Amino acid sequence: MGGKSFGAAALLLILLNVAHGGKTSPFMRKVRRTEDMPLHSDVFAAPSGYNAPQQVHITIGDHVGRAMIVSWVTVDEPGNSLVQYWSEDSSQKREVAKGNHVTYRFFNYSSGFIHHCTLRDLEFNKKYYYEIGIGHTIRQFWFMTPPEVHPDAPYTFGLIGDLGQTFDSNTTLAHYESNPHKGQAVLFVGDLSYADNHPNHDNVRWDTWGRFVERNTAYQPWIWATGNHELDYAPELGETEPFKPFKHRYHVPYKASGSTEPFWYSVKIASAHIIVLASYSAYGKYTPQYEWLEAELKKVDRSKTPWLIVLVHSPWYNSYTYHYMEGESMRVMFEPWFVKYKVDVVFAGHVHAYERSERISNIEYNLVNGRCGPVKDLSAPVYVNIGDGGNIEGLATNMTNPQPEYSAYREASFGHAIFEIKNKTHAHYSWHRNEDDFAVTADSMWFFNRVWHPVDDSTTN
Ligand SMILES: [Fe+2]
């Protein structure tokens, strides 16, 4: 192509992008089948040794980051639920915490012994070593506690959603681990193992998933939100207790924020107040989740935690054809609150692709006024869809056209994101596709805090 015609084509491309406000990335990933890694894959290998702890994962264990829940599975016998731990500078003066274990059955599957133990009264911003498997096969891990809650405390979150256990899932996790921005905790927007895509919801795939992600979940807290693949509701198998495997395997500190169920809760980490919502639990008026959120938003103190972040599985703004408008009823219930309380960003998953919105709201609508449609709103959050972890169901590639004005960037690729809080006013956000090298940023934005620096931070102006 000659220089002139190339220039004209480039100009046309730019004009097209401007015309629709946002950008639909032309990036084409090479087509291949998305399938779960086979059971004999090395990432699923059980640790050696009698009754060795496996599927180790940690999450924040209180409301401010001074506690950590350590969870693991033993398979030969219950063993004990003890955790020995010590801080890096305590010359190995060891403390011991005692937890407990649970088991469950799902159709013809019997779980191992699932241990949960909360380490309390930890010091902020400190490296701790911990050991589990005491009396049989001891395994040692470590974690960093977050800094004390403070308005200018910097902190870096990783964002992963809809991960599953395919070869692509493994690439996503490897990219997150190698990202030079170095996430300190993961905000996970739901859909973990996709065990329910296997015959009889084969819960062995919950175990393999736990072993697969252990290389990260044992060392940094993952904040869990639940997706539809955690429901495991299967009356045809006689399994009618929703979330049964998830509830037994993944404990979260929901009581610390006054919640009554582990599906909606909040934690404060550094300068961020993180609210986890449940797309698959009742949220209509008078329900426990509704009442909890109404009270919770009033408690958020932006002078202490300037950044208000929400995690929810089913997106409210999504311009792909998949799961289109599934999040609409929750949006109608809660969006006016998000604008009133100036939520900075909402991370969702469910749609297996990437999308970032403008700051928009659609809260004028009611049954009689006829006003309906997203409008630019500087008090509204940015909506990020990060359901691109790489699970067995494959990529969502079909988008609605033309790209709606509210969609700032969208691309059908697998990847992860990083939300890097610098201080009370600025956070750098970046999205990283799996097809690129580790340090490459495919989409990015400087977030300006909605309370302390509420100016326009759109990337398309
Ligand atoms: Fe989902």
Automatic annotation (TrEMBL):
User: What does the record give as the reaction this protein catalyses?
Assistant: a phosphate monoester + H2O = an alcohol + phosphate
Question: What's the superkingdom here?
Answer: Eukaryota
- Purple acid phosphatase C-terminal domain residues are 380-437
Would I find Signal among this entry's keywords? yes
Record-listed E.C. numbers: 3.1.3.2
User: What general EC class does the enzyme of this chain belong to?
Assistant: hydrolase
Q: Name it.
A: Purple acid phosphatase
Keywords associated with the record? Glycoprotein, Hydrolase, Iron, Metal-binding, Signal, Zinc
Q: Which Pfam families match?
A: Metallophos (PF00149), Metallophos_C (PF14008), Pur_ac_phosph_N (PF16656)
Q: Which GO terms describe its molecular function?
A: acid phosphatase activity; transition metal ion binding
Write the signal peptide boundaries: 1-21
Presence of the UniProt keyword ATP-binding in the record: no
Q: What organism is recorded for this protein?
A: Phaseolus vulgaris
Regarding protein family, the annotation reads: Belongs to the metallophosphoesterase superfamily. Purple acid phosphatase family.
The cross-references to InterPro entries, in alphabetical order and at most eight, read: Calcineurin-like_PHP, Metallo-depent_PP-like, MPP_PAP, PAPs-like, PAPs_C, PAPs_N, Purple_acid_Pase-like_N
**Upper taxonomic lineage:** Eukaryota, Viridiplantae, Streptophyta, Embryophyta, Tracheophyta
Domain Calcineurin-like phosphoesterase, residue spans: 156-354
Domain Purple acid phosphatase N-terminal: from-to ranges: 53-143
Task: Name the needed cofactors.
Answer: Zn(2+); Fe cation
